[in-house]
Structure formats: structure tokens, C-alpha cells
Amino acid sequence: MGPPPLDIIPDWVIFNYNLSHSFITALVIIGAIAIRKKDMAFAMLGWPLHIMMDFPFHTRNYFPTQFLWPLTDFTIDGIPWSHPLVWFPNLAGIIILYIYRFKQKRD
User: Are 51 and 7 spatial neighbours (Cβ–Cβ below 8 Å)?
Assistant: First the structure.
């Protein structure tokens, strides 16, 4: 149980994680899309929102989020998603959202 050791994870996985969790990458791609399709670019703002919600919840020991990659390898030593102070409120929020949506659908 638990996460796999970092030494068995292929380099391309770590590269893709850094690429997809970088504000630089996200903003360049969203900016390029915005030139052609503004409505699509607006929907893509969920990507940087995901990055903002992700980087505080990774430790430097396991998949630290290099949110300014490739400019810098700066990371924040956050609290892991598996920590009870993060996991239980996250679970509670999801349950509350489902209850709310269920009640909205019935009305």
C-alpha cells in the first residue's frame, strides 16, 4: 500500500507532471487558444485553478509541484493529500456537494 517509490517512476512521467503542473505552460497554451477561441480559453482556466489547488498539497519528498517550471525548480513543501487535515475536509466537501446537488435536482 502507499505510493510507489520515486526511483521506479519513469522520467517521462515526472517530465509530464512538471509540464502539466506549470503556470508557465498553462498560461502559454491558454493564451494561444484565447487568440482563436476566447470561450474555450475561459473554460481552460480550470487548469491553472487546479495547479493553485495542487501545489500546497504535495511535499518536496513526493512529486513536488514545480509550478514555475521551466523557469525555476522552486517548490513548496506542502501537506500531502493523504494527511487527515486535508483528506477529511476534502471528503466532507465532496459529500456536501453531492447532497446539495441531489437536493437541487429533486426540487
Answer: no
How is 7-72 classified by DSSP, letter by letter? GGS-HHHHHHHHHHT-HHHHHHHHHHHHHH-HHHHHHTTHHHHHHHHHGGG--TTSS---TTTTT-
Question: Both ends of the chain: CA-CA distance in Å?
Answer: 43
pTM, two decimal places: 0.76
The string of pLDDT tens digits covering residues 72-102 is: 999 999 999 889 999 999 999 999 999 999 9
Domain boundaries, the chain: 6-80
Q: Is the dihedral of CA 12, 14, 17, 19 positive or negative?
A: negative
Burial 7-32 (b: 16+ CB within 10 A, else e): eeeeeeeeeebbeebbbebbeeebee
